[in-house]
Amino acid sequence: MSTVPEIHRFTSIRPPKVTFIGATAIAALGLIVGSWVFVLGADRVQSQPFFSVETLERGGRFLQALLGIGSSSTPAFAQWAAWQDTARLAYQTLAMSVLAIGIAALIALATFMFGASNIMRGELAPYRSWVWGSGFFVVRAFYTFTRAIPELVWAMLIIFMFAPGLLPGALALGIHNAGVLGKLSSEVVEGLDTRPLLALRSSGAGRFQVLAYGVLPQALPRFITYLFYRWELIIRTTIVVGFVAAGGLGLEFRLSMSYFHYTTVTLLLIWYLVLVVAVDLIAAVLRRMAR
């Protein structure tokens, strides 16, 4: 009996093709396993391992302190006066987030088209000069610089120029998110189909008219969508920025932790959760209206 077909069948077998998504999933799985191997290896040399009865007991005691279990006084989250006092802090935190997203929106809206390569250096560039082309790199460098420095570091730097309050926190959040929002919006402009824009220009429209009536209307809905997404992230970061005397719930959270007022910490976390859920719902409604 001939074995030629069998030999041909085995030699035609090829190894499976690894796609980019498959390679990424394998790499992510390897990083997860490697990180846990490192954590567990370093865990053995610590005085108190992470997976231990002592850690579980400490976590239980801290949870009891947050809930006021075993305390002779009434927990702060069960006092109406405490809710009234912290409501003002929650309002300040919300105001900080609104002011921050307003600052980020103004900066990004004024600069994002100048951060698109097809506008500044490509076929839609109003002027073919090194000055106009270098503006692209200036805007992109600004986006990179503002995004590279975290909000907390920005707040620590700005707090030395301004008195403690909401303004330093709003500026820190606004400057950082202006870089993020501007870069995302610039990439939206770079992904636009330029054929309708070139047709508009060939019909007699000036280059800046093409930008105002062709590019901006197409990019603006995506810009607004990104804007509300960044607002959702800003409200989550306000409590961290508040640690450096930027006001709101963050400052009171740090003081309550320092003075071991754990039931007040629980109350502040409840307010923080309410703000996050409210902003998420409002942003979702506004995004649907903008589409």
- Overall geometry: globular
CATH topology of the largest domain: MetI-like fold
Which architecture name of the largest domain does CATH use? Orthogonal Bundle
Q: Outline the biggest β-sheet.
A: none
* CATH H level, superfamily name of the largest domain: MetI-like
Sequence stretches where pLDDT stays below 50 over 5 or more residues:
none
Class based on secondary structure composition and strand pairing: mainly alpha
Terminal-residue CA separation: 69 Å
Q: Give the total of domains.
A: 2
Strand % is: under 5%
Question: Care to describe what's here?
Answer:
The protein is mostly helical. It has 2 domains: 4-51; 79-290, Orthogonal Bundle (MetI-like fold). It is built from 12 helices and no strands. The chain has helices at 4-11, 20-43, 53-67, 80-111, 117-120, 130-148, 151-158, 166-190, 195-202, 207-241, 248-258, 262-290. Helix 10 (207-241) runs antiparallel to helix 12 (262-290). The model has no long low-confidence stretch (mean pLDDT 86).
List keywords for this structure.
291 residues, MetI-like fold, mainly alpha, globular, 12 helices
Write the layout of secondary structure elements.
Layout (H helix, E strand, L loop, with lengths): L3 H8 L8 H24 L9 H15 L12 H32 L5 H4 L9 H19 L2 H8 L7 H25 L4 H8 L4 H35 L6 H11 L3 H29 L1
